[in-house]
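Each letter names a residue; the fold follows as tokens. Both lines appear below:
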Amino acid sequence: MPATIHDVVISYPPVGPQTRQSLVDDLHALGVREGGVLLIHTSLRSLGWVCGGALTVVQALLDVLGPWGTLVVPSQTATNRDPSTWAPPPPQSWWPAIRENLPGFDVARTPSTAVGAITEQVRTWPGAVRSGHPQTSFAAIGARAAELMSVHRTDCHLGEDSPLAALAKADAATLLLGVGYDRATAFHLGEYRVPDPPRRTYSCAVLTPGGERRWLEYEDVVLDDHDFGRLGADFEHDTGLVTSGTVGAANCRLFPIADAAGYAQRWFVRNRGA
């Protein structure tokens, strides 16, 4: 008996389909430049109905960036951490088993979590390069991918020894594609640059060079995005460096990472106090 193929129920929005070419046109109009380095934070759903989904979005971004451009995504692994810090945490009786059995981070195989379908499309793209951090890795495609992903110390999530600082030095821009300032990783670089930033202990599962799994604890700067919405609004108002527009049906913002990190550093000193 032949296998039965079940229909997938799809809800079509009133606005027409977004295509590779329509997304290219919108990205050009927004100001994404050929040959540049672009860090994206995305919501596929926000674009409307895209013919081809995440694959089409990545193809359009690469079309605009061209052969000398580089596309970067945050390929974070948010669940690779102590279960007591999960939101919500699992039952406390589970914690020892999770700590003992959570798979060690594998740069080639561990999927990113909670960062969307477009990120996973980039991470698994042929030739993509991923940084080696077990919790806050980045993945990149393009001319400068290997260079920009090459340094990512475990005790430096998003600071000077991470791809984020390399992106700032490379005059990269960040694109918020249908998401808000609360997703703007660029601001975290500013947290590392304030005097004596608060620090805490992190932990996760890693693989040794020999392939042995172990549980690792290390200290790093506290990452806190609770006020990024207010920070982003001030950055946009005060600097005039943010270009706003639409790509598909998504509200988008495009701005330089280095300027965003510098502004964030000063803003934290003024607004977060000691």
User: Anything to note?
Assistant: The first helix runs from residue 20 to 30. Residues 20-80+108-197+225-271 form one domain. The chain has one domain: 20-80+108-197+225-271. The mean pLDDT is 94.
